[in-house]
Amino acid sequence: MLNISEEKYDKLVALSNENSVISALAIDQRGSLKKMLGSEDDSTIEEFKKMISKNLTPFSSSILLDPEYGLPATEVRDKNAGLILAYEETGYDASSEERYPDLLDNWSALRIKEAGADAVKILLYYDIDASKEINNIKHASVERVGSECDAENIPYFLEILTYDTKIQDVKSREYAEVKPHKVNSAMELFSDPRYKVDVLKVEVPVNMNYVEGYGNDDEILYSKEEAKRLFKEQSEKTHLPFIFLSAGVSAQLFQETIKLAGESESTFNGVLCGRATWKESTDIFAAETDSEYTETNTWLQTTGKNNIEELNQVLNQHAVSWKDKVLVK
C-alpha cells in the first residue's frame, strides 16, 4: 500500500472521477506539438492548448499541461477538472545521447503548487539495461523531484517512456520483442519507496500491433492470452496506483487496449490520454484561416468529445479505484 498525507490524498481526489479513477487529458506536448501544428509561434501553441482545455475538460477528470505554453489553458479548464503540471523540458537533454531528464530552470515543485496544480509530473526516458553509470544519474534525478514533492505535499506522477540503447525504432518488431521486459522492469524499479512516486504513468507492456487480433497477422509476436498474461504481470510489479499513456495510437486502438487490460485483471487506475483524443484536430487547426477556429472547435465538440466519452465508458468498465492501493498517514 502507498502511504500518503491527507493533503496528497485530497489532491488525488481532485484529479479523479466519481469512481476514484483518473481520466485525465494530456496536452503537455511542446516540440512535437509545434511540428503537428506547423508553427513555432508561442501564441498559436497557447491558443490550441486553450481550445483543447476549454472544449474537452468538461468530460475529463483532470488535465496535464506544461508551464511554458499551458498556463493560459489552465484558466479556461472546467471548474471540476484537476490540474497536473509538467516539470520537465520538452523531450530530454539533447546535449548527450543518454536521454537524461532536463527540468525547467525557473520552476520547482513549490512553484507548480503555487500555480494551482494538484500534482507534479516528470517524464523519464529509461532503459533498464543501460549502464549503471547512466541509470544512476537518472535515479538521482527521480529521487530529487520525489523529495521536492514530498516536502511540498503534492502528488508526484512519474511518466516512464522505455527504450533500448541498441534499437533505433521503438515501434519496430525488434523492440516489441523486448518491450514487456523494459516496461515491467522499470515499473518495478521505480515503485521503490526511495523514489517517493505516488502515481506511475506508464506504457502498456506490449505493442498492440504485434498482438493476435489487433495487428497484421503476418507480424504477430504475442497471442491474445500471452498479452493478457503480460498485462497481469505488469500490475503485479507495483503496489502503486498506475495509469496508462496512449503513446499516440488511434482512439479506437487505445480503447481496445484498455479493454484487454481489464480482461487481464490488471489493477490499473486510469489513463492520461493525449494524442489519441485530439491528434486529428491538429491538421484542421493548422489549415484554418478563420480567426475563431470554427472548424477546430466543431471537431473538438463532436469527435473529440466522443473520443473521451467512449474512453470513459471503457474506463468505467475496466479501471479500478486507486483508493484500494492507498492509506492516509
Question: How would you summarize what this structure contains?
Answer:
With 329 residues, this protein is of the alpha/beta class. It contains twelve helices and ten strands. The strands form two sheets. Strands 2-3-4-5-6-7-8-9 form an eight-stranded parallel β-barrel, surrounded by four helices. Strands 1-10 form a two-stranded parallel ribbon.
Could you characterize what this model shows?
- The structure is a single chain.
- This protein has 329 residues and is of the alpha/beta class.
- It has a single domain (2-328), classed as TIM Barrel, CATH 3.20.20.70.
- It is built from twelve helices and ten strands.
- The chain has helices at residues 6-14, 31-37, 42-56, 71-74, 109-114, 132-152, 173-189, 224-235, 251-263, 275-278, 281-287, 294-318, and strands at residues 2-4, 22-26, 62-65, 82-86, 119-126, 156-162, 199-202, 242-245, 270-273, 326-328.
- An eight-stranded parallel beta barrel has the order 2-3-4-5-6-7-8-9, surrounded by four helices. A two-stranded parallel sheet has the order 1-10.
- Helix 7 (173-189) runs parallel beside helix 8 and helix 11 runs antiparallel to helix 12.
- The N and C termini lie close together (11 Å).
- The model has no long low-confidence stretch (mean pLDDT 95).
